[in-house]
Every structure is written in C-alpha cells, then in structure tokens.
Amino acid sequence: MKLSEELKWRGFVNQTTFKDLKDLDATKHTFYWGVDPSADSMQVGNLAAAMMVRRFIDHGYKAILLIGGATGMIGDPDGKTEERNLLTLSQIAKNKANIAAQYRQIFADKPFKIVDNYDWFKGIGYLNFLRDIGKHTSMTQMLDRDFVQNRIGKGGKGISYAEFSYSLIQGYDFLHLFRKFGVSLQVCGADQWGNSVTGVDLIRKLEAEQAHVYSCPLVINKTTGKKFGKSEAGAVWLDSKKTSIFDFYQFWLGAGDADVEDYLKIFTLLDKNHIDLVMNKFKKIPAERLAQKTLAYEVTKLVHGKKQADKVVEATAELFSGEISEATPTVSVPTGSQDVIDLLVKSGLAESKTVARRLLAQGGIKLNQKKIDSQQIQVTKGDLLQAGKRRFVKII
What we know:
- The chain is α/β, with parallel strands linked by helices.
- The chain has three domains: 214 residues, Rossmann fold (3-Layer(aba) Sandwich); 88 residues, Tyrosyl-Transfer RNA Synthetase; 66 residues, RNA-binding S4 domain (Structural Genomics Hypothetical 15.5 Kd Protein In mrcA-pckA Intergenic Region, Chain A).
- It has 18 helices and 14 strands.
- Strands 3-2-1-4-5 form a five-stranded parallel beta sheet, sandwiched between helices. Strands 8-14-13-10-11 form a five-stranded mixed beta sheet. A two-stranded antiparallel sheet has the order 6-7.
- A hairpin with a 2-residue loop joins strand 10 and strand 11.
- Helix 17 crosses helix 18.
- The longest helix has 18 residues.
- The chain is globular.
- The protein starts with a helix and ends with a strand.
C-alpha cells in the first residue's frame, strides 16, 4: 500500500498544500512535526498525529521531531479564549525532557532526530528578527486568523503581542529547518494549519522554494459527537503518573462499537489484513469485544511497552476475582466509614471534589458493583470502588 493510499485508509486525510495526494508517493520529503512543552506529557490527541508521523517514516520519509522550547515559553493561542499562564523555565525544562522520552518510546524502532527550537531562538536579536522575518510577514493574513478574530472581536478577552506573534515564531521554525536540514514538509494536527502555512510563505519569499504542509483531522468520538481524548476523570495522558496504565488501558477498552474500527486504524500499528480479521470476528460476536480488547492492548503496548500491557490485561481479567494484580490500582484506607468524595479524589478516580460530586449525583459510583447514592460508605479490605464504566480501585 502506497503512502497516499494508507493515509486515506487510516483516515489521515485533511487539509494539505499538495494538489494531489499521489504527490506524496513520488518524493520522499524530509519533514518535521512538533509538540510544545505546555504540559509534562502528551495526551492521546497528540498520539493521533504521532501515529500519522509513523506512517510517513514507514514510507521512507526522514523525520525531524521538534520540542517547542521557545514556542512553549509563549504558548499557542489557537483555540484558547484567554491568555495562557506562562510556565517557568524549570517547568519547561522538565516538560521538554518528558516529551523527548515519549518520542523515544513511540518511535522506538524508527530513525528520527530530536531538535529544540529554543536552540536557534535564544541567540536571535529582536531587531534582527523583525527586519529579517517580520518584514516578510503579512499583518493582514495574521489578523484574519480565526483565533485572533475571536480574541479581539466583540466579547473577546484580547490577545497579547506575545501570543499574537506565536504564528510567526512557528513559521520561522519551518524556515530554519528548511535551511539547516532540508525540511520541505511540516505535518501537524488540524488546529495547527494556520501556523504551519506561515512557514510555507516564508520559505517561498526568502528562499524562492516550495514547501508543503500536511495535516491530520481531529478525531471525533462518533458515540458522543465530541472531540476525542477525554475520560470521566478528564484528559487521558501518555504519562503513567498522570493517567495510570490501568486507566489508560480501560479508556481504550471502553471504545464504542461505532468508533473502534476507526481507532484501530488510527492508533495501532496493525496492518489492513490484521484489522479486517479482527473486525470480521468482532462483528460476528460483538459481545466478546475482541476489537476493543485488541485496541486497548496494542495502544498500551505502544505507549507503555509489552510487559506493562501484559500486566494490565492480567489485572483486568482478575479484577472481579478478588485477587489484586500488580497492575490493579489500589487505595489504602482504614476499614469502616469513609467519605466517598474524599475517597474518589484520594484514589485518583476523580480529579477533584467537584468531579466526584458530579459522578455521585449522576449515579456513576459503585461499590462492589452496586450503585451508591450516599456520601458516607462502609468499606473493608478487598472492596472494589468503581467510577463510571471502566475505572476501578481495590481497597487495601
């Protein structure tokens, strides 16, 4: 299967500067993809773009993976209704190290180079940047961006010069990487399209060369109609300290029947024959949830490694047997009366007391598979506390 064909089949077709997708098959570009260190981990939304990146690498494209140490100091305003809080340099350094480690895990068996845009921005003088780059950037084009209009229009909360300049900074990344590594393609998520074409314009104006952008669509949960990537507890992170491996696995296991085939194509490395085989078996006996089990195992293996994936499969199988596997989440509390709101937060089943109260009010809390509606509950060793459909902890 050619690259253009695989991108179509997996659902990775969105906006692009290529006139014909078949152009992707004719030339093997050097490309880049970047993530800002606005948090100390990527989320599953980032994972969708990362999996698209893998397809390009698999088809012979040379990959430059960027960590936005410079852009992370400003914060991407796209999609934000108000100014971001600035991170400290120490926070950014920690976040950069964590994201680099996740790059190495997800692309473990592939050739790639990691770069940090702070390395080339730290030495650029303000006047030089305005003269050499800003002079070639259209204010009209930047003001026309949807996120700018939303922030400066009626009811908007305004936008700082720093965040307004974000697009220009990212555009310079593309120009710099074109000059240093011959990068002629940027791949990105749909929300980065406007920022990415800024670089295309700079390369055309300053180097008289053609460059391209290829974006992947946002993943939409067909079951809910909402942007993919949230669980009852909030965002689903790739870092096991933020989303436990058990909860990560359970998130994928809970995929809806209408979504699971799409997710297998987007988020796993399985080929068409393997996915077709899984889906044929799944459609014959949906109750066995083979497609969801395959999805959960494959994504967990990719992000956390085979050993951890095997452990969490074992933990899930033993969940209701009374045994505690090494991978089963636990919470240690005294036997007797407990405030379920406090217990949900302490165990990590809810990210805040507000979320815990909402889950309780909606009937989403169970103890030993029985729904509870009282804030005070009696617990003992071995009890199973559940929030939502697929989030559990054992009481020890």
